[in-house]
Design goal:
With 241 residues, the chain is α+β, with helices and mostly antiparallel strands. 59% of the residues lie in helices and 10% in strands. Strand 1 (21-23) and strand 2 (28-34) form a beta hairpin.
Length: 241
C-alpha cells in the first residue's frame, strides 16, 4: 500500500500533468515527456516515462523505464537517459522527486534533439558538397569512381569518429570517477560478427551508390569535323580588309 507521502505526491503530479500523466495504480504511473523547445525542420522527441515506487520510496530510487513515443531514439540513447535520471534521483533521495525527474528529462531531450539536428544539418551540407563536386566533374569529363568515393568515405568516417570520441570525453569529464567506471561498463559493444556484417552491408551500399552516380562525357561531341576544318582553312580576306 502506498504511503501517505506518495499519495500526496501523486495528487500533485496529476494536477501538474493533467493530460500527460496516466495513473496505473497507487504505486505506478506513466508520464509523457517532450523536449522543452521544438526545433524547426526537425521532428520532436517524445518519450514515455514509466515509474514504479517501491515501498521504501522516497528513501530509495523509483524504478524507471523509458519507451519512445515520437522521434528516432536509439537503445543506447535510452540507456544513457535512464542513467542520467538515476543520478538525479540519487541526489534527491528522501524527497518527492518525480517532478524533478520529469523536468530533467525534458532538458535532456532538448539537448539530444539539438545534437541530432546538428548532425543532420552537417550531413546534408556534406551531401550538397558532394553533389556539387560531381557536377563539376561532369564538365571536366572526370567520372566519380568507386575508389575516389572510398577515399572520401574513409575521411568522412574518421572525422565522425573523432567528433564522437571528443563528445564522449567531454561527457566523461562531467562524471565522478565512480560514475565514469560504471558508464564504461554499461557501454554496449558490437561483436566481431556484427561489425563484419555491418561493414559488409555498408560496402555494398557504397558500391551501389557509385554505380548509380557514375557519370562520363562523350569526348566526340567536342571534336571538329573534317568539313568544318576545311571551311576554316578556306577563309580568305580581301585587300580592302
Amino acid at each position: 500500500m502506498a504511503s501517505e507521502t506518495l499519495l500526496e505526491e501523486l495528487e500533485v503530479l496529476e494536477a501538474i500533468y493533467p493530460t500527460e500523466l496516466e495513473r496505473i495504480s497507487d504505486t505506478d504511473l506513466q508520464i509523457e515527456a517532450e523536449q522543452d523547445d521544438l526545433l524547426e525542420g526537425y521532428p520532436a522527441i517524445k518519450l514515455l516515462l514509466s515509474v514504479h515506487y517501491p515501498e521504501a520510496y522516497p528513501d530509495v530510487l523509483p524504478e524507471l523505464k523509458l519507451t519512445t513515443v515520437e522521434g528516432a531514439v536509439t537503445d543506447n540513447e535510452i540507456d544513457a537517459l535512464v542513467r542520467d535520471l538515476s543520478t538525479i534521483g540519487e541526489e534527491n533521495l528522501g524527497m518527492a522527486m518525480t517532478f524533478t525527474l520529469v523536468s530533467h528529462l525534458r532538458e535532456l531531450l532538448s539537448k539530444l534533439s539539438r545534437s541530432k539536428k546538428e548532425e543532420q544539418d552537417r550531413l546534408e551540407k556534406e551531401l550538397e558538397r558532394l553533389q556539387l563536386e560531381e557536377e563539376e566533374a561532369k564538365t571536366r569529363g572526370t567520372p566519380v569512381t568507386l575508389e575516389s568515393f572510398k577515399v572520401w568515405k574513409a575521411k568522412f568516417d574518421k572525422e565522425l569518429a573523432e567528433k564522437k570520441a571528443q563528445e564522449e570525453q567531454e561527457k566523461l569529464k562531467e562524471l565522478t570517477p565512480k560514475e565514469r567506471e560504471e558508464y564504461k561498463k554499461t557501454q554496449t559493444r558490437l561483436s566481431g560478427r556484427q561489425l563484419f556484417e555491418r561493414n559488409k552491408d555498408a560496402a555494398a551500399q557504397d558500391e551501389e551508390l557509385i554505380e548509380e552516380g557514375t557519370v562520363s562525357v562523350d569526348i566526340s561531341q567536342y571534336e571538329r569535323t573534317k568539313e568544318e576544318e576545311e571551311q576554316d582553312e578556306g577563309i580568305t580576306f580581301s585587300d580592302s580588309d
